[in-house]
Amino acid sequence: MVLDDAALQKFSFIPRGMKDAINIDPLQTGGKLTEDAKRTLLEWGDGYSVCDYCGGVLDLIKKPPIEEFVHSVLPEFLNTDEVRVTHGARESKFAVMHSMAEKGDYIVLDELAHYSSFVAAQRAGLNIRTVPHSGSPDYKTDVEAYATVIEEITRETGKAPALAQVTYPDGSYGNLADVNRISDLCHRYDVPLMVNGAYSVGRMPIDAKKMGADFIVGSGHKSMAASGPVGLLGVKEDYADIVFRKSPTHKNKEVELLGCTVRGAPIMTMMASFPHVVERTRNWYDEVADARWFSSRLEDLGIMQMGDKPHDHDLMFFKAPVLYDISQTAKKGRYFLYRELKQRNIHGIKSGLTKYFKLSTFQVGRENLKYVADSFEEIIDKYQKKE
């Protein structure tokens, strides 16, 4: 097969088509690059750019200051003993599961865990038992059930689970479970706890030791204003030699990280955005106030927020019977909402969703959130007047 030049041109530049859009997509609001990160992306975007400075261990590069960032700054930021930068939260979770458990062992996940937590465990050959939640409308994780599930596994197998995990917050409803209580329960049975903070690390203040987390996982492209994929893994000193064990044949290479991890733009943009990330975690309660204000506005329109109330996170899930009813008669049906929002330069609610959807108010700002809420009101009024 011969590819001609004309056929190849379609790949030369692909515009995203989101210039100046207000973005409420929960996957993207925390990953929006800072201006410093955008400049850094251009400077360090070439392939293995940072490897020019590597003496054999990527996270020990002194210039640019990756070693200081990974081994000094990030542990202080998370209040944990050891940190590594990984290819993403799921890679971090897999590294912990694969190193802490043997094939066939059980681990405990919250029922609201991201699918990648399940897939990571399955890849490691582990059995999974889940902790239930309360169901609609609150979807609260049953914290006390961690003890119940651990006891059930121990009774059935004669062995405690190798690991437990809580998703903080969960990626569907934005609920923040009582992680300290979960930690106390797990440690009562000598079960280490991993906190998946893909939507918290980089958005809100996180103190792994105060939470009782043995492992803390973060996502750079979801919540740390970095180009991805890139993640973080923080590990308590007790388990660092297990998770970050060295290769017997290549003495300076860590097995679970396949020798070295993130090269180039992802690690460099994470560092470039870091001063901004630290500053915004200090303003977290302003973000919570914005989320609660926005939720209240939408509920006044008949769009009901599910999950914890009052809400303590920017990620929210809504049930919108009023929009679903409109979709039954609107032109092109369930796609009407996406089109109406796009016309108003609002991005983030997936095409075809009307009855249920989730969004994030993180870093959107009160003025833009007012515009989004007003837009929902205008859209509802527009179609209800047609009836």
From TrEMBL:
PANTHER family: CYSTEINE DESULFURASE, O-PHOSPHO-L-SERYL-TRNA:CYS-TRNA SYNTHASE. It is an enzyme of class 2 (transferase). It catalyses: O-phospho-L-seryl-tRNA(Cys) + hydrogen sulfide + H(+) = L-cysteinyl-tRNA(Cys) + phosphate. InterPro entries: PyrdxlP-dep_Trfase, PyrdxlP-dep_Trfase_major, PyrdxlP-dep_Trfase_small, Sep_Cys-tRNA_synth_arc, SepSecS/SepCysS. Its cofactor is pyridoxal 5'-phosphate. It comes from Methanolobus zinderi. This is O-phospho-L-seryl-tRNA:Cys-tRNA synthase. Homodimer. Interacts with SepRS. The gene is pscS. The modification N6-(pyridoxal phosphate)lysine is found at K222. HAMAP family: Sep_Cys_tRNA_synth. Pyridoxal 5'-phosphate binds at A89, R90, N196, S219, G220, H221. Belongs to the SepCysS family. GO terms for biological process: translation. One of its GO terms (molecular function) is Sep-tRNA:Cys-tRNA synthase activity. Keywords: Protein biosynthesis, Pyridoxal phosphate, Transferase. It comes from the Archaea. Its EC number is 2.5.1.73.
